[in-house]
Amino acid sequence: MEIKRFLLIVFFLFLIIPTIDAQSPFQQPKSFSEGFEIKIPAQGIIKQNEDFIFHFHVFNISNGLPVTEDEGVNCFFHLYNESGNHILKENITYEPSNILNEWDIKVTGGNFSRVSMMNYIIQCNTDEFGGFESVGFDVTPTGFIIETSEANIYIVVLIATFILFLALLFPAIKLPYSNKTDNEGAVVSITKAKYLKLLSIWFAYGFLMWFLQTLNSITSAFLKLTHLSNFITNIFTYSNWFSVGITFLVLAIIFIEVWKDIILSNTIKKFGKAFTDGRLQ
Question: How far from the centroid of its chain's Cα atoms is residue 217's Cα?
Answer without folding.
Answer: 4
